Task: structure prediction
Amino acid sequence: MAVKPLTLPWYGVGRWSGGWYAAAALALALVALGAVAYSLQLSQGEVVTGLRNVGTMRGATWGLYVAFLVYFVGVSFAGISTAALIRLLDLRPLRAVARMAEVLTVIALLLGALSVIADVGRPLRALVYLPTYARPMSPFFGTFTLVIAGYLYASLVYLYLDGRRDAALCAQRTSGRLARFYRLWAAGFRDTAEARRRHERTTFWLSLAILPLLVTAHSTLGVVFGLQGGRPGWHSALQAPGFVVLAGISGVGHLIVLAALVRWLLDERERLDLTVFRWLGNILLVLTLVYLYFTVVELLTATYAADEHETRVTMAVLTGPYAPVFWVSAGALVAAVALLGRQFLTGRYGVGLTALAGVLVNAAAVGKRYLIVVPSQTHGTLLPYGDGAYLPTWVELAVIAGLLGLGAFLFMVFMKVFPIIEVPEPSEGGR
Amino acid sequence: MAITRRTFLKASGAAGSTAALASLLAARPKTLTAAPPAAAAGPAEEWVPTTCWIGKQDCGMLARRISGRVVKFEGHPEHPLNRGTLCPKGVAQIMAVYDPHRVKTPLIRTSPKGQPGTWRPATWDEALGLVAEKIREVRVRDRRLLLWQKGRSKAEAFYDDAFVKASGATKLHHGAFCSDAGYRACEYTIGPHGVLHPDFRHCRFLLAWGWNITNAGGNKLCWITWPQQLVQARERGLKVVHIDPRLRGAGPFADEWLPVRPGTDLALAQAFAHVLIAEGYVDREYLVRHTNAPFLVGEDGFFVRAGGKEQVWDPVTRRPRPFDAPGPPPALEGEYAVGGTRARPAFQVFKDHLAGATPEWAAEICGVPAESIRRVAVQLGREAMIGSTVVLDGMTLPYRPVGAMLYHVAQQELGFQMVRAVLHVFMLLGAVEAVGGPRIDLTWKPHANFEKLDRITIKDPPYNVWLQDSQFFPINSNNSSIVARVLQDPAKYGVDYVPEVMVVHMANPVLSFGSPADILEGFKRITFIAVIDPWLSETADLLADVVLPAATVEKYEGPSKASDQYVDGVALRIPPMAPLFQSRGEIDIYLDLCERAGFLYGPGGYLDELNKALKLRDEHRLPLDRKPAVREIFDRWARSEGIAEGVAYFEKKGVKVKGPVKAAKIYGFAQDPPFDGLRHRLYGESLLRYREQMKARGVPELYWRDYTPLPAWRPPTMWSSPPSYDLTLISFKMIEFKQARASQIPLLAELAPEQRLDINPATARARGIGDGDWVWVESHNAVTGQTRRIRVRARLTEGIRPDVVGMPHHYGKRNHPWTRGQGPASSELFFTGEGYVANTADQSFLVRVRVIRA
Amino acid sequence: MARYGMVIDLDRCTGCRACMEACKVENNTPEATFWMYVFRFEEGQFPNTHQWYLPRPCMHCDNAPCVKVCPVGARFKREDGLVATDTDRCIGCRYCEVACPYGVNYFNWKSPKKAYYLDWNDPDLQPVTNGDSPPYRNPDLDGRYGPEGRRTAGGGHAKGVIEKCTFCVHRVERGLKPACVVNCPLFALHFGDLDDPESEVSQLLRRKPHFRLLEEVGTRPRVYYTGGNPPVAATRQIEPVKGRV
Ligand SMILES: Nc1nc2c(c(=O)[nH]1)N[C@H]1C(S)=C(S)[C@@H](COP(=O)(O)OP(=O)(O)OC[C@H]3O[C@@H](n4cnc5c(=O)[nH]c(N)nc54)[C@H](O)[C@@H]3O)O[C@H]1N2
Ligand SMILES: Nc1nc2c(c(=O)[nH]1)N[C@H]1C(S)=C(S)[C@@H](COP(=O)(O)OP(=O)(O)OC[C@H]3O[C@@H](n4cnc5c(=O)[nH]c(N)nc54)[C@H](O)[C@@H]3O)O[C@H]1N2
Ligand code: SF4
Ligand code: SF4
Ligand code: SF4
Ligand code: SF4
Ligand code: SF4
Ligand SMILES: [Mo]
Result:
């Protein structure tokens, strides 16, 4: 049967609206702000941050930067894993968000790497020495940077291969500079049934390869904290699984929000129909429930079983200076569960509400990352230094804002140069 | 001049083995292994001996010089006082030396006095000319118009005393704010010049009586030496009873803590004595032979005399006999009819006097449990081992291994009598100046005051500006705050002049002496004041017309005694570098000043006085017609002391260790006759005499009430402040600072950045005060009703009595980036004058306060 | 080969903090940096109050978490037991700091030159200091030490790197004892070869009962304490020193 000829633009590719420019400008403004703040930090030193030494200075030496590093990596996790799962389990209804997930992963990883750079005292040395002198036995920057690197690479390859077909399609239908870019990407891909089958197979195996990689990635991330016997609050078996689940939550949440945005921006009700949100919403619901369960278990062990140091940290979180952050985050998670649960039970799903849940869980995720990183430093000293305190300064906030702005900008640009939703195969293309 | 570190390492080994601290030192070679010569730092390195410029015991130091610049001070391994170590101040002073905020050039005031000044830098020529002219002028008019104020000096004060003598100035010093009440009590009662410290080598039971062990000096010394000896003694089993409202001073070294109520020590001491007598812990032989305990006291309280001789009771012939007549031991107890009156031996009077001074009585007053008082007293009696002897250097001497350390605590309203009461406790045990017993000076050296203070003739007005021999303070420690009071109203005190010119040298009265408000008000009336100081002290800032920048460590100064009471030595401060900026050493300054003021040369001139002060032997005397270089002065001194190389010896070695001190030099009991025949004054008859004379002259009671032959307890004046002033403020030193002369050193300021109020958590809670909260501390003068208040942060500690709050000295400096924001001086809350000075004009550092949340 | 360690006699410590100052001057550490820190502790209630003092250098742990976690091998364990920091290698990630249970690591939050307490650029000082900041700069700290020949001595090297107690490697390699040890007025600090049974430290450990801080964490510190006991939950810090950056 005849293929209904598709004509550019697809999914807004190449359609540079005024609204887009406005949004892009806003994002870039944030980036600029971050750049200014960071250059100040570079010249003055990290004295311009709220970070201080653990011990006599009674501060936290890891703060917002590390909290967001963990958060970004978490987001990326969900991205790639959903993408991979969609392939492996051939979840047709979710194929529409696969590419978004892949892009999300790449961008989040990039931001993660940048927040490492933002945190270290010697960024240039870090770039050179981390690879040159990398020590596998060091959980964080050793294993973890390797993972980030390897993982970023893998995701890029994945995105690339997965995009070849659409690139080829685009190449056929465009001319000029973009065309060359598409042809490059397509790398001689011909949209024949044969090629399509080969394409399917490679992506399938790729997904299979990627899964273990990312589970280790996030477990080690948990281990970074979990293995620190000297830091009450971190030293917990639940750290690793907790990290993975919370990562999933933030990632899926993000994906939901993006999907909702794209659906609204491109007015794409067919590919991004309610089933997409039903699926994602339910996944998020399950993950969140699991996580809440972990949290409760952790609190119980920390309050009853634990020694006075553990309790000190827990109390700081539950009733002390960190209580606001904790209860707001917890509240957000519960609210999300309520929203999603209601949808699940009533079977009536709404894009808006699901997206709202997505936003809530992400807010919660950021809060929880902060609570994992900071209190164990200010209230977890084993020698009686006394309670410490940490509050990020405007510099740290600006740098993080800059990173978020950068992420948004990159995503927007991608949307304009490449189909953010996989171009349907002719078979299902016919309408 | 330069020597390498290794010379000292070898030397220190040697010193160590001979030293009392052998056990400590033997355990401590400074090297891990003899350093390979190659490893000894490069050719540019030299080690120059000098002494600490901060503290009052001039610890020996080695300055490490790299290509000419000093980069570190280390303790001089051979110096008996510090044995190669330094306290935090000693280490940190390196930063003070280079401090760009020192006074760099002479300054001349361009703004009105009484408020922070503005200044015009001047040349030495102009500044010295100005000061010299003022001095010259008043000297011809009336020498009394010239005042000279010194603070807690360092090294030997020979060169400034020489200035005082040559210029004829009236000397004011810091003693009445330091511990002079104790000095007077000991000079008057026993003889030597000092307060009390233990014979650490032999002592086994110590009363740390207001001794701030881990922070401050104790008797005479600055710090390091006493703690070193204490720790060593504890390793031999010494037990420490800490008598102090605050635990922090003794910290872990207190085996028992008696948190006495401030200002009640006299009652506590009397209770100790009461128990000792009751339990029979009395060394009768000592009392009979070496004190006036057997002297018969008539009903009028005066000694019974015959032919001018004090009488004692002969128990055999049953009649009185002169105290120095041969015969059986006289009676210490009983009541006898003598020439119509009934007389009792002084000891009987003492016993009767203490009859009511039971531990229960004292417990009420001092706020410590009666049983603790009794237990400690009995322990003291037992540990004293009355009757035991020990052989030292072939002499058989009384052995009384019980001691006391007591110093600045003497500065309370009853201070003079309180220290006498403590002395009485140890006199009962026959422990004073015995082996292991309490000591007053490092060696047995009776002071002229033993006689002088007994024979004061109270004069009629007019008095001099510090009321010497006056009807107000017959015994008088020369208190600058009283002087300030006098200056405000000379007529009231029978003074008929106001001094016009003052030189302030190494003192900061405005901050460090009691009642800064009075100091300021009084000293403002002195028309011309020159301050010699490396820093713009508050005194300089508010009162000086001219500031002369003194060098810090970079000057010749000395000689300074280097005796830890067992090993003797002498040291000089050698400049490890040229004076920074335009500063100069004091001796340089005085030489020029005297020359310009016209009393440098000739007999009675400054040079002549220097010769006397340094006791230079003939051939080494300074010629009286030529201005010498400072180095030459010390060179002559060294040679005169029999050191062939002269000052070069000290430039090479820094300290001359004379070796172990013979027991014969140390102990009063080791003299022949013991104590050079002095009889210790258990009973202070002359005090009664002064009392009668003061009464006869119609002097108000509060001046004479404490002139009693035996210490008598009375509630301190401050207790009559209204009940709302329910806390007593005490103050103390911190190990981090030295008076108000080191708080600007950044390395030290960093350790204790701001003034604080130590307060018991219970007390704080009752006032809704939390740790770190701002509070108002308001003091009240029970005599004038005046109040003063300052704002500080509260610091909660269980180491202080609930009815006491404590505030360190040291703070209140304003003219340095690191002292701004440190907060006010505790002195601002203390009062001076009637009710707040002892009967000896000694300043009290106690006052009633109330504390409220700010 | 000697394997060094420190023995701290709490029966002698007066909490005077001279060791802190000796360390700061010898090692030129910047403001608010206390490689040696002396706790002043209080326990109990008036009048049954107990106060005591506890010096805290780096423990130079044999099983040092800080070494394990360093991503670039800037923090490393030496043959002779010292745990060293290569300030030329350190990237300033502060992972060693979060890993250390003792809180002994200090980061250079700003340029050390700007953190030496006073402005030493005063023109009147230049003739004497010819621009050196601080004027008491110790030249030995610029050297390279150990068979590795790495820059591991002293502090104030660079902005954005971490520094900590070096056990005075620059002195120890010259056969001298650490600055804090030789200066202690009460001779409470002892340093030497723990493997040599005859060394002063070994003898002291044989003579007196001793403990190490946080043994339960398994770091195997090379710093031992004799006299007294480890701090407990009820131990309060008095007169803490925070330092301002
Ligand atoms: N509240 C309270 N007050 C107290 C005390 C207390 O415990 N509590 N202690 C009291 C005692 S014990 C004493 S001894 C007095 C001490 O009182 P002061 O002797 O006045 O001691 P400082 O306040 O140090 O003043 C010394 C001044 O001399 C300057 N100076 C330092 N070195 C030199 C030098 O080499 N040459 C010259 N020319 N000047 C120099 C310093 O800069 C400072 O300005 O304070 C008393 N004041
Ligand atoms: N670090 C340092 N050392 C110093 C000095 C310094 O400024 N800093 N100054 C030097 C000088 S000049 C001197 S005079 C000496 C002084 O040396 P010390 O006399 O040993 O020490 P202070 O702190 O002056 O004495 C005050 C002590 O007495 C206690 N106290 C206060 N009121 C009372 C009371 O009513 N009864 C009793 N029983 N105790 C009381 C305080 O709590 C404190 O412990 O220190 C010398 N050494
Ligand atoms: S004890 Fe006094 S003299 Fe000795 S170093 Fe310390 S401050 Fe200087
Ligand atoms: S110097 Fe010695 S006595 Fe002073 S705090 Fe340090 S270890 Fe303790
Ligand atoms: S004390 Fe901390 S920094 Fe020192 S070795 Fe142990 S873990 Fe490393
Ligand atoms: S801060 Fe420096 S020493 Fe510490 S872990 Fe990071 S790189 Fe290693
Ligand atoms: S050993 Fe050296 S570096 Fe370590 S605390 Fe002592 S002085 Fe400082
Ligand atoms: Mo004093």
About this structure: The pocket of iron/sulfur cluster (ligand 4) is lined by residues C 13-19, 38, 53, 55, 184-186, 188-189 (CB under 6 Å). The two ends of chain B are 57 Å apart (CA to CA). Chain B touches chain C through 78 residues (CB under 8 Å). Residues 721 and 782 of chain B are 5 Å apart (CA to CA).
